[in-house]
Amino acid sequence: MDKRLGFIGVGNMGEALVKGLIGSKAAQPSQICVSARRAERVEELKKTYGVLGGSNAEVARHSDVLVLAVKPQILDQVLRGIAPDVSSDQLIVSVAAGVPIAAIERRLHPPMRIVRAMPNTPATIGAGATAITLGEHATETDLVTAKTIFDSVGLTVVLEENQLDAVTGLSGSGPAYIFLIIEALADAGVKVGLSRRASMQLAAQTVLGSAKLLIESGLHPGMLKDGVTSPGGTAIAGLHTLEAGGLRNVLMNAVETATRRSRELGEEFLRKP
After folding, report:
1. CA–CA gap between residue 164 and residue 160 (Å, rounded)
2. Would the CATH topology of 5-160 be identical to that of 174-263?
3. Residue 1 has pLDDT above 90, yes or no
4. Any residues with CB less than 8 A from the CB of 189 and at least 6 apart, and which?
5. Could you report the per-residue pLDDT of 181-226, keeping only the tens digit for each?
6. Residue ranges of the alpha helices (H) in the chain?
7. Cβ-proximal residues to 84 (8 Å cutoff; 6+ apart), any chain
8. What are phi and psi of 52, to 5 degrees?
9. Does 174-263 carry CATH code 3.90.280.10?
10. Which residues have C-beta within 8 Å of that of residue 165, sequence separation ≥ 6?
11. What SS3 class is residue 172?
12. How far apart are CA 256 and CA 186, in angstroms?
């Protein structure tokens, strides 16, 4: 990209995006400027990646694309602080979960070109799943720019904004569900006699390999499940126990509950004066 990229907030997600852009050669370090609450964090990123550093206001003023990679809890404060330093010539990209585009625009200078994104933590290793949505004033060029940013850390899909809370409930919160499943599988391995190390390795690789097989084969998960399940065998015995325990119902309820909480957070943000 031939654009100046600014990152306000370089925690795990902000750093993942910086690393992904540089690693994929989508941007050069000299195009990227970062800010953080701690000056030593900015210095760390400058030393590690060769990027530039500055205050929130400086990053906002000198960026063509400004990525807001901060927690929803402090986004309001950040937006109010940079409002004098942004303009409608810039593209604003927010990764704050649950915060609607309308709330972001209201604290800046409407009309603003805004893209809202919901990445997940596997982006830190280049295996993220991100959904993005365009604000009313964002352009097709802005869509290409946003996809370039998030494609550098994994898979990107484009959705309507009213679907992003569901994304938060599914892929945004999903890694937590998968980690719990891996931990439970590893505990089960220990219970039936495997070492903790072997159990954890086998459980994690099984989840990784299963996901990879699903993606690369393009087959429906039900077909792949049936391929593992032989008549009277071990897999069908285990599946019967999972169905009896309501695994599908529990996972569906978890996604639904997380989606509802994301909507609540967005509504709370909108109610702020």
Report:
1. 7
2. no
3. no
4. 198, 199, 200, 202, 203
5. 999 999 999 999 999 999 999 999 999 999 999 999 999 999 999 9
6. 12-23, 39-49, 56-61, 72-82, 101-106, 140-151, 164-167, 174-191, 196-217, 221-228, 234-244, 247-271
7. 57
8. -95, 165
9. no
10. 98, 259, 260, 262, 263, 266
11. helix
12. 26
Q: What is the pTM of this model?
A: 0.91
Q: How far apart are CA 244 and CA 49, in angstroms?
A: 51
Domain segments of the chain: what residues?
Answer: 5-160, 174-263
Residue 107 contacts residue 83 (beta carbons within 8 Å): yes
What is the CATH T-level fold of the domain 5-160, as seen in this structure? Rossmann fold (3.40.50)
Q: Which two tokens stand for residue 88?
A: 């409608």
Q: What is the pLDDT of residue 268?
A: 87
Residue 168 near residue 162 (C-beta atoms within 8 A): no
Instruction: Tell me the average pLDDT across 233-240.
Output: 96
DSSP, residue by residue, 42-61: HHHHHHHH--EE--HHHHHH
Sort residue 144 into left (φ over 0), alpha (ψ -120 to 50) or beta: alpha
Which is nearest to 207 in space by CA: 193, 220, 221, 218? 221
Residues 169 and 115: beta-carbon distance below 8 Å = no
Instruction: Name the token pair of 251.
Output: 């996972």
80 is written with which tokens?
């109010």
Of 105, 5, 110, which is closest to residue 64 (Cα–Cα)? 5
Q: What is the DSSP string of 218-237?
A: ---HHHHHHHH--TTSHHHH
Q: Residue 166, class by beta-carbon neighbours within 10 Å (0-12 exposed, 13-18 middle, 19+ buried)?
A: buried
